[in-house]
Design goal:
This protein has about 60 residues and is an alpha+beta fold. It has a single domain, classed as 2-Layer Sandwich (Macrophage Migration Inhibitory Factor). It contains 2 helices and 4 strands. The strands form 2 sheets. Strands 1-2 form a two-stranded parallel ribbon. It has a two-stranded antiparallel ribbon with strand order 3-4. β3 and β4 form a beta hairpin. The longest helix is centred in the middle third of the chain and has 19 residues. It starts with a strand and ends with a helix. This is 4-oxalocrotonate tautomerase. It comes from Rhodococcus wratislaviensis. Keywords: Isomerase. InterPro entries: 4-OT-like_dom, Tautomerase/MIF_sf. GO terms for molecular function: isomerase activity.
Length: about 60
């Protein structure tokens, strides 16, 4: 049973999240012939203030632009 776990920044619409789930499911189905009913997808949305690289949050990077 494939389990796809995605972490993204907050800010996508419900339609975008739904589309991502659909596309990931289809990709796993095509790539490894997993039955769609066996594919699990979890989308975790993280606030931009809680995600950092190099000690700089996404929110700080955006503000610096």
């Amino acid at each position: 049973m494939p389990f796809i776990d995605v972490t993204i920044g907050l800010g996508r619409s419900p339609e975008q999240i739904r589309s991502l789930i659909h596309e990931l499911t289809e990709a796993a189905h095509r790539a490894i012939e997993a039955p769609k009913d066996n594919i699990r997808v979890v989308i975790r949305e993280v606030p931009e203030t809680h995600w950092a690289a190099g000690d700089v949050t996404i929110a700080e990077r955006r503000a610096a632009r």
